[in-house]
Specification:
Length: 316
């Protein structure tokens, strides 16, 4: 027998023995119910208070986060040193996501110069995507040195870095809109001819032209009217549409058949842009002359990808 039932039974015994009247007994039941309801409400409120501590702490992290620094509009054209991309230097960079977390990047050194075609390989979780986030100024520099055109990272506003980068991530989504809107990111003055050309470049135009509304066909992540391979090529077309000097592509050939992979290989090599690719696809990686792989949080140059002159120098 639980406690509330026992108390009610005792009150009923008092009423039956004549110690209390029937009216007093019913008044007792009413007050007991009110007290039980208030007590349960107090306990629930206490639990809700403690459960709120997690989202409140998260909101506090967001509110207290350091604001990104952007170039004032009146000065946006004055910084001629970073108007064009020439070189990024990464030296002895260490990065971890939490104070108590193990470092994802450890004393990593790396260089990207204008016109380079570079591929980076490594196991999942080795730090490849984290490196891209640092290069795109999506994560702050914690330890080490990074410089754009010789200017140290802390002395640059985030827009001075990002204006050069087009970043295709694994988690990119298809937006609710037309195919053309997804390629141009809803640009108001979209170039339809360029959209068609890029769709042809990634091998998607024939598929699109077979659709009833062609580039005006509505798509989204919740509408299953394009395949995984078509989605991947559409995201690549989106990255190519952005007029940026550096293309950073994270797994651009995932979900593609071997023929499509070879097509994308040729496209990336023909681009007049700096290209840095992360991939597990060794077929794609083999098409790049400059290859790096992640080892213990750092990058190691693949000896097989070195130029003959450099290999001869090492042998000597």
């Amino acid at each position: 027998m639980d406690i509330p039932t026992a108390i009610t039974w005792m009150a009923a015994q008092l009423m039956l023995s004549g110690a209390v009247s029937v009216g007093v007994f019913y008044s007792f039941l009413i007050y007991k119910g009110l007290m039980s309801e208030r007590f349960a409400s107090t306990i629930n409120s206490t639990f809700q208070y403690f459960m709120l501590s997690v989202p409140v702490a998260r909101v506090d992290d967001i509110v207290e986060a350091k604001s990104e620094r952007y170039t004032p509009l009146v000065d946006s054209q004055k910084a001629t040193e970073v108007r064009d991309f020439r070189h990024i230097e990464v030296r002895d960079v260490t990065f971890n996501y939490g104070i108590s977390d193990e470092a994802v990047l450890r004393n990593l050194s790396f260089e990207v110069s204008r016109g380079d075609k570079i591929v980076i390989t490594g196991p999942s979780g080795s730090g490849k995507s984290t490196l891209f986030k640092l290069l795109a100024a999506a994560e702050p520099l914690q330890h080490g040195h990074m410089a754009l055109n010789g200017i140290a990272w802390p002395n640059l506003a985030v827009d001075e870095i990002r204006r050069h980068m087009a970043h295709m991530r694994q988690g990119d989504i298809i937006l609710h809109g037309s195919i053309a809107d997804n390629v141009t990111l809803f640009a108001g003055n979209a170039d339809e001819d360029r959209v068609h050309k890029l769709l042809a470049d990634v091998g998607l135009l024939d598929d699109v032209m077979r659709l009833p509304m062609r580039t005006r066909t509505m798509i989204s992540d919740t509408i299953a009217n394009i395949s995984a391979g078509q989605r991947q090529r559409l995201l690549l077309a989106r990255a190519l549409y952005q007029d940026r000097e550096v293309l950073m592509l994270d797994e651009p050939t995932s979900n593609l058949d071997p023929a499509s992979v070879r097509h994308i290989e040729g496209l990336l090599q023909s681009l007049n842009r700096t290209v840095v690719v992360i991939t597990h696809d060794m077929s794609l990686a083999s098409s790049f002359d400059v290859r790096y792989r992640f080892v213990d949080g750092g990058l190691v140059r693949d000896a097989q990808a070195q130029t003959p002159e450099l290999a001869d120098a090492i042998d000597e």
